[in-house]
Amino acid sequence: MFSGGYRPYQRQFTKSLELRGAMSICLLGQNTGQTKKRPIKLAEIYDCFTEEFETENLKEAKVFIDEIS
Hints:
mainly alpha; 3 helices
């Protein structure tokens, strides 16, 4: 009954986890000197978000993307 209204929240939660994972991988790559394609994936995930840019994860991702661009 409520599953249709729940899907956008579930998708956003999944994207939030994916963003956090991409951030972790980028930071690990930065620490080991391997930063080739990882920031591109992070930027792709970040671009999927259309609202709620005040969350801590999105703020951190934006700062990181800006630093490496």
